[in-house]
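Subject: sequence -> structure tokens, single chain

Hey, anyone have a minute? Need the predicted structure for the following. Not urgent.
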Amino acid sequence: MITEAAALTTADLHLLAEAGGRAPSLHNSQPWRFRPTPDGRGLEVHADPTRAVPAVDPDGRALHVSIGAALFNLRVAAAHLGRDAAVRLLPSGEDAQPRAVLDLSAPGGTKHPLGDLYPAIAARHSSRQPFANRDVPEALVAELITAALAEGVILTVLEEHGVRRVLALTSEAEDRIAADAAREAETRSWLRLEPSVDGIPLTALGSHDRDARVPMRGFTGHPPHPASPAERFEALPQLATLSTHFDGRADWLRSGQALERVWLLATAHGLRASVLHQAVELPDTRWRLRDPVEGPGHVQLVLRVGYGPPGAATPRRPVEDVLDPPEG
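Reply:
Had a minute. Here:
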């Protein structure tokens, strides 16, 4: 006879919410809230509109990617707790809350391999420091591609000509974004929440530091800000794109899950990563990111990977701020 798993305990809910809250997000906005399901055997994942960045992300694409990453962390944490997870995306429609529901009512079976990624959740950071001029092994690249595909997303590791094309688009987008006063004001409003980033005072960061965590000029050709530490980046970074065939909210949520699955797997193998946001923020440069040979597709993210320092941890919202109490 099949029985339902026990209701989630307070400790279970805290562990799940803490894991979900460690996901990456644009400007570290952390635009999510978690709510126990009415039966106490799952979690709803809601968008937090107070954490949106409308000037940079008017259609909510980056918000949904971030929520998808948090959702994947919840799946990993559930596996760590020995629970099987069933996920429904947008159960009440594209424009309604919750954005996803994680059902953990089924009894746990054999150990789920996602549970092996649990230690990587705390170890995963955005590394915006120089990487070594060392190629990622082909076998590991294949694992990362498979990990993204498991979430319905295509990861493409770019060859040299593709890297140069993407860097040129990143540079173009960076210049245009830096000239947009509304975007810059919104970005600065988020960055003021942190007194320093990677040990660099925010006042020392130039306007082209789009997420203020790496001098992206090191890739795009802009000279370093005089108050920023001079560092030599790898001659040609290793870049990958995450793409989907369609471009709706469900695709954005899947892209976030794929991003975090790839990133956690990379972290477990000693790889570091960071996201290049600029070119996906503008519709025309985002469209030109796609490989013209591959045909129609929608690039959701550009990921830089390599071997180097782990990067600094970023501040996280307390669990009490993102986890709603059970109903009743």
